[in-house]
Amino acid sequence: MSALLELQSVDKRFGGLHVTRGVSFALHAGDRLALIGPNGAGKTTLVNQISGVLGCDSGKISLLGEDVTRLSPAQRVRAGLARTFQITTLAPHFAVQRQIELALFEREGRTGRMWRSVDAYPALQAEAQSILTRFGLSDHAGTATEDLAYGEQRLIEMALALALRPKVVLLDEPMAGVPKGDGNRLLAALDSLPRDLAVLIIEHDMDLVFRFANRIVVLAEGAVLADGSPDEVRRDPRVRAAYLGN
Ligand SMILES: Nc1ncnc2c1ncn2[C@@H]1O[C@H](COP(=O)(O)OP(=O)(O)OP(=O)(O)O)[C@@H](O)[C@H]1O
């Protein structure tokens, strides 16, 4: 089976600081890969390199077999990669359903025609409704995003990423700041992601990592320290020494 996302010897330096060092791994359809590592290990830098926000000093990134190393973030989205949107960059006063419809509209390359005309596309409205149902948000279709609880806003971020029909999705700390009570809804949403999607998640919450991931890559000082099943990684003495602590 060919890889959906492949990193080959990816490197990044900030001046004298070598932040990602020869990072290589691949994601296939259905993978649930967690990228973990101590603070400052280079996780965010690596995800920015994957999404195209940051370039690579050397190495190669491929999406669905296509070399995307020099493509912009928008081109990578079109090539099948989605990253959770930061909700704060969206229009918070828009109703939730509208927000999703806009993302669908953008996916279809119709943004220039103004959002009012979304109403002329019942198929997109139906798709937006089904996404909201999957995330348990149908009751909030008409609610302004800014009036949702924080955990629900994180769900919308995930819903928006999915609206792009990606093959690979990057989830950057989906649990961060989510109150305990809302955590289960987020977990349910993670479990309901399409099976054939390849998911790369960065998350500090180890309960979630070990519950969700079928593979874990441990980054330490910018390099891959371990890459294996959750059990292999949990037992790896180098990982325990560098990160897990016990
Ligand atoms: N734009 C930048 N310019 C210079 N140094 C940077 C820049 N971005 C990150 N760094 C440095 O690169 C290293 C890796 O940072 P990065 O944020 O990628 O780590 P991380 O694993 O995501 O950490 P955390 O878990 O704390 O979010 C750190 O030493 C950080 O200070």
Give descriptors for this structure.
single chain, Rossmann fold, 6-stranded mixed β-sheet, 4-stranded antiparallel β-sheet, globular, binds adenosine-5'-triphosphate
Summarize the structure.
This protein has helices spanning 43-51, 73-78, 96-107, 122-134, 150-163, 180-191, 206-212, 230-235, 237-244, and strands spanning 5-14, 17-27, 32-36, 58-63, 66-67, 81-83, 168-172, 198-202, 215-220, 223-228. The longest helix is centred in the middle third of the chain and has 14 residues, at 150-163. It has 246 residues and is α/β, with parallel strands linked by helices.
Model description:
By secondary structure, the protein is α/β, with parallel strands linked by helices. The chain has 2 domains: about 1-80 and about 165-245, 3-Layer(aba) Sandwich (Rossmann fold), CATH 3.40.50.300; about 90-165, no CATH class. The chain is about 35% helix and about 25% strand. It is built from 9 helices and 10 strands. Helix 3 packs parallel to helix 5 (about 150-165). The two termini are about 35 Å apart. The mean pLDDT is about 85. The protein binds adenosine-5'-triphosphate (ATP). The site of adenosine-5'-triphosphate has 11 residues, from strand 2 and helix 1. Adenosine-5'-triphosphate binds near residues 37, 40, 41 and 42.
